[in-house]
Amino acid sequence: MLNSNVLVLNRSYLPIHVTTVRRAFTLIFQGTALAVGRDYGTFDFESWMRQSMQRVEAIGTSRGPIRVPRVILLVRFDRVPKRHVRYSRVNIFARDKFTCQYCGAKPHRSELNLDHVIPRSLGGRTTWENVVCCCVDCNRRKGGRTPTQARLHLLRRPVKPRWAPMMNHIGSNVHYEEWRPFLHIVDRGQRRAVGAD
């Protein structure tokens, strides 16, 4: 329970991150964040402790059970999520939905690699448009060849994402009803950005 997910909002109620319940409680206790209730009300640690415990997730403390927050609001953080997406291993995995782009398998993350579609030995560059998520088996099969040479086909052409892929990944895997109203803000922003191009 302490390692399950909590959505983090900036002061403008825009989703910026996902953290653990353990970290969320620390932020609320320190006064850095407020818990957000189902009716969008915000609560400091003491008022959150007094929240109704009927049919809700809770953890035990020395002062009694405390309700698990699924959304928290940072008190002093105004940053809007950047539209510039940093190239990284995790963002490639997230863009490709942790799925091998050759066979469609979704192995454990430890069994995923990054693959240069056009190998570096053939002049391929390390860019959003030339790197994909790939399972270990397909990576071995492909070796230093192009997909055509290895008789492999890409499921999707790799592109640079328009929005932070982790937010896309979060939005497509909503685990908690409490997250939905806040993730629709991101969805609308993404649609607006796509329409602007």
Largest β-sheet summary: 5 strands, mixed
Q: Give the helix proportion (percent range).
A: 25-40%
- Listing every helix as H and every strand as E from the N terminus to the C terminus, the arrangement reads EEHEEHEEEHEEHHH
DSSP strand count: 9
**Low-confidence regions:** 186-197
Tell me the domain tally: 2
Report on this model:
- Residues 186-197 have low confidence and may be disordered.
- This protein has 197 residues and is of the alpha+beta class.
- Strands 2-1-7-3-4 form a 5-stranded mixed β-sheet, sandwiched between helices. The chain has a two-stranded antiparallel sheet with strand order 5-6.
- The chain folds into 2 domains: 1-80, no CATH class; 82-162, Orthogonal Bundle (DNA Binding (I), subunit A), CATH 1.10.30.
- Helix 3 (89-95) packs across helix 5.
- The longest helix has 17 residues, at 180-196.
- The chain is built from 6 helices and 9 strands, in the order ββαββαβββαββααα.
Question: How is the topology of this model organized?
Answer:
Elements: E1 5-9, E2 15-20, H1 21-30, E3 33-36, E4 42-43, H2 45-49, E5 58-61, E6 64-67, E7 71-74, H3 89-95, E8 112-116, E9 131-135, H4 136-142, H5 165-172, H6 180-196
Parallel strand pairs: 1-7
Antiparallel strand pairs: 1-2, 3-4, 3-7, 5-6, 8-9
Task: Please provide a brief summary of the model.
The chain has 197 residues and is an alpha+beta fold.
Label this structure with key terms.
197 residues; alpha+beta; DNA Binding (I), subunit A; 2 domains; 20% strand
